[in-house]
Amino acid sequence: MNVDLFDFELPAERIALRPAAPRDSARLLLLDGDRTEDRGVRDLPALLRAGDLLVFNDTRVIPAQLEGRRGEANIGATLHKREGPRHWIAFIRNAKRLRTGETIDFGNGVTAIAEARHDDGSFTLFFPGDEPVELLLERAGRMPLPPYIAAKRQTDARDADDYQTMFANEPGAVAAPTAALHFTPELMAAFDAAGIGHTTLTLHVGAGTFLPVKADDTTDHKMHAEWGRIDAATADRLNTVRANGGRVIAVGTTSLRLIESASGEDGIVRPFDGDTAIFITPGYRFRGIDGLITNFHLPRSTLFMLVSALMGLDRMQAAYAHAIENDYRFYSYGDASLLLP
């Protein structure tokens, strides 16, 4: 499909630079079949049904943004996929000043060797030493806010909490599964009281999620792989919920993409442990999920293509026009939508 079909105009003031406070006070746009309603995140327990199951991503964002020097050159690195205990693939700023075999000094006793350059311009970095890389990042790294926020303000101490979900448990993401940022213990208690269950899976979100689609046609776009895991108990629970007439509601596109990666043509979710580079565009037949809670996405992005596949391109273009006209807040720290095809 032509990527221009997924374009829309978004006023800059619609991009949220801070999350709603409290988190569950964010607005919610409901798309239920042909119905469109302006609601709030706190309405979710009433908008879902007893027996439904919410699926959250329990990945934890690491301080994956690094600033360093190679000789006289300033080098920026955004880690986006772990390749081993001491190896990470990273997007490099000022990459033309970095050659294979050279060492970047990130300060605070943290260095990395550029071991290999890849076709997309990224590098494999090796972090020498005995300390776990996680400790090195805590010392030298900072929270990797999305570029559309980082371009407008500095990362600060608030982001260390604001950019983690209440489910964050498994370190490894370089971007938050932002739909889950709206959830609070009080909201989860309301789901429990309404008979709506929840479970978790793990998908370590990579910085590739923010890369623009540069191809003119979706068939020419290459997705970056991300590592995920669904254990046997979680897969069984997802299958049981649907067998009993409940709905599986993915919280965030990351949860959705992993469930779909683990689902067979028969709609059965199977245990999964490995990389996924699934790219969902209109025409895709969803197999493992029945609905999605997600934020509002960038124009021409793979995530706007995904929600258009779920609800229909015309439906989503109209919904986003409604959201813009009615002052919804967009992107990672913005408002939410509940999509029920």
From TrEMBL:
It is found in: Cytoplasm. It comes from the Bacteria. Its EC number is 2.4.99.17. Pfam families: Queuosine_synth (PF02547). Belongs to the QueA family. InterPro entries: QueA, QueA_dom1, QueA_dom2, QueA_sf. SUPFAM superfamilies: QueA-like (SSF111337). HAMAP family: QueA (MF_00113). This is S-adenosylmethionine:tRNA ribosyltransferase-isomerase. One of its GO terms (molecular function) is S-adenosylmethionine:tRNA ribosyltransferase-isomerase activity. Transfers and isomerizes the ribose moiety from AdoMet to the 7-aminomethyl group of 7-deazaguanine (preQ1-tRNA) to give epoxyqueuosine (oQ-tRNA). GO terms for cellular component: cytoplasm. It catalyses: 7-aminomethyl-7-carbaguanosine(34) in tRNA + S-adenosyl-L-methionine = epoxyqueuosine(34) in tRNA + adenine + L-methionine + 2 H(+). GO terms for biological process: tRNA queuosine(34) biosynthetic process. Pathway: tRNA modification; tRNA-queuosine biosynthesis. It is an enzyme of class 2 (transferase). Keywords: Cytoplasm, Glycosyltransferase, Queuosine biosynthesis, S-adenosyl-L-methionine, Transferase. Monomer.
